[in-house]
Amino acid sequence: MKRLEGKVAVMAGGAGGIGTGCSKRLAQEGARVVVGDLDGAAAEAVAAQIAEAGGQAIGVALDLADPASVAALFDRAVATYGGVDAVHCNGAAIADIASDLDALEVDLALWDHTLAVNLTGYLLCTRAAVPLMLERGGGAIVYTSSGAGISGEKTRVAYGVSKAGVNALARHVALRWGKQGIRANCVSPGLVLTPAARANAADRLDLLLSLTSSPRLGEPEDIAAMVAMLVSPDGEWINGQTYVVDGGMLMR
Length: 252
Ligand SMILES: NC(=O)c1ccc[n+]([C@@H]2O[C@H](COP(=O)([O-])OP(=O)(O)OC[C@H]3O[C@@H](n4cnc5c(N)ncnc54)[C@H](O)[C@@H]3O)[C@@H](O)[C@H]2O)c1
What we know:
Layout: E1 8-12, H1 17-28, E2 32-37, H2 40-52, E3 56-61, H3 67-81, E4 86-89, H4 108-135, E5 139-144, H5 157-177, E6 182-189, H6 195-198, H7 202-210, H8 220-231, E7 242-245
Parallel strand pairs: 1-2, 1-4, 2-3, 4-5, 5-6, 6-7
């Protein structure tokens, strides 16, 4: 399907497990994609794979925790493709559960870094994107959230708080600029089999699968399908929502 023909999409964190799938899907839908990632070489590699498949993309080094780096990402999008229609904020600082502890024990530097990347970084992308989208009569933003931002967890307090903040950011942006044609929504993935997730022990993956209402765990393409729909005209009447895409694990 080519629902994004002529559009420009910025992927902030577009070269990891889920991000690569989303970058490729947006390109398959016809978008010219600016793949930003902390791993600049990986971002360029994803852009090269998109070009090999007949799409258009560039790879850019990006640090979501650095306001100048976020501004430079959007400057590159404008300089290369003339503007921005869609943004997917997806990159994240994800500490392991041995470091991101409970509210009494979490290291404050880790807390600050997690919020700087996962939440303030998404705010910085929003600040850069909204004026560019208003120039074009509207646009769509998707933020990657997590079940950790909806349900409670005994640890990962920094990660969960950052993702709950992202859900609120989407509602804010939807309310503030919805009448001007800007939409903002969240996708909240369940366990997606990225290379890192596949490294889990088989019995842990079996346990996680048993918690779903699906015969299988998730793939990056499952998340990419929702992101592509949300930024496309098919998502035109969807604003300020958080969609759980997790094989029916978290039901509300
Ligand atoms: N995989 C899952 O099961 C799962 C579940 C729920 C939510 N998520 C969310 O999905 C998103 C993608 O996660 P993933 O599983 O693909 O992980 P991943 O580690 O494969 O990808 C994360 C990406 O973010 C990039 N990144 C990290 N810090 C950055 C920074 N400061 N600036 C720019 N980019 C940065 C990394 O380089 C990497 O490419 C994250 O927001 C994560 O919280 C994933």
